[in-house]
Amino acid sequence: MRTVTVLGVGVLGAQIAFQSAFKGMTVVAYDIDERALAAARGRFDGLVKTYGNEVPEAKGAAAQAALSRLTLTCDLGQAVEDADLVIEAVPEVLALKQQTYETLSRLAPAKTIFATNSSTLLPSDLAPFTGRPDRFLALHFANRVWQFNTAEVMGTDQTDPAVYAQVVEFARAIGMVPIELHREKAGYVLNSLLVPFLNAALELAAGGYADPADVDTTWRIATGAPIGPFQIYDIIGMNTPYNIMAHGSPADQRLAAWLKENYIDQGKLGVVSGEGFYKYS
Ligand code: NAD
Questions:
Q1: Can you name the CATH fold of 3-180?
Q2: For the whole model, what pTM was predicted?
Q3: How far is the CA of 101 from the centre of ligand 1 (A)?
């Protein structure tokens, strides 16, 4: 697969498009209107700088050269007319994604494989709207794709194994480490581990059992991990964990309320605001 279209050039879509172009793919980036495309251009310019600073192979002109393989458009038909693979990264709203696939199914050629980057929806929630459930699956990236380069690959019962294998190969070709799930699982591998882990840490602090710094120290010394759960909270920022817990069980909602009262309402959002569980200069 050489020709890739990314739908939705927001935080993740821009990174996926840029990384694919950086690794030599021909990429079309689609978003809804000129305003969104202008924002996308700004994101790509930012990524040229970030790659130049953080990615050893991007020294010199390599990051800039990626831009020459990237085209931006707000014409969906044109965006997908030659696509081998469409990676969808539109907002995490079920109805919006379903509608996107309904339109896409009419416009894309029969050869095109569709992959969703959805974090919380299952591909089987979307498969009936794709018009080609055998050529549809999830390909889930992590924020900062050039650094945290896992790509979780998860099909439905209907996904053709040959299509699945092609997408695994594509992930590898753009510098990701493909993580293959054999069955559908909400949260894939990473969030199935990370969410309960972070919740357990928060219970220790919110219940008054131990200070966040001591929880982190325990985790680092006893397991050899480089950072502890509260350091992870600070990197992710408080809003995403808050939103997940606020929609969870009553116990999760109590943790969400504690996080809001003691951190979010006080502007302690993590690294991004200069203070979370720790202070940053
Ligand atoms: P975002 O809000 O930053 O970007 C969404 C983009 O989609 C915007 O540019 C918006 O203009 C565009 N858009 C809106 N409606 C559209 C439509 N109908 N067709 C095409 N584009 C449309 O969102 P994001 O954080 O990049 O998340 C996108 C997807 O990636 C979600 O499914 C999310 O679960 C997933 N994801 C996000 C992260 C993350 O850390 N942000 C990590 C992994 C996966």
A1: Rossmann fold (3.40.50)
A2: 0.92
A3: 14
